[in-house]
Amino acid sequence: MAAIGLRSFLPAEIQAPIIVTFHAPNDPRYQFKDFYERVKAKGFILYPGKLTQVETFRVGCIGCVGPDGMQAAVNAVAEVLREMEVLDI
């Protein structure tokens, strides 16, 4: 996700292996509901990240998820951000 410009909410040294929280893009074209629906249509489910005052979204990574599955999820997120013309990540 860092490779496509998304920033993790927590530093790597304290990040848990179950769910990862990312800062939402700053671009006004980013709307979580639209983002969620588009990523879901590509076969992946995201979670809203309203646990803090900071706009975030979360990605679950628990279970049998290998490198290929994670890369497919990152690719889906990147494709959706391009489709939405979200530039300010």
Automatic annotation (TrEMBL):
This is 2-aminoethylphosphonate--pyruvate transaminase. Its cofactor is pyridoxal 5'-phosphate. It comes from Pseudomonas fluorescens. Keywords: Aminotransferase, Pyridoxal phosphate, Pyruvate, Transferase. The keyword Amino-acid biosynthesis does not apply. The keyword Transferase applies. Its EC number is 2.6.1.37. GO terms for molecular function: 2-aminoethylphosphonate-pyruvate transaminase activity.
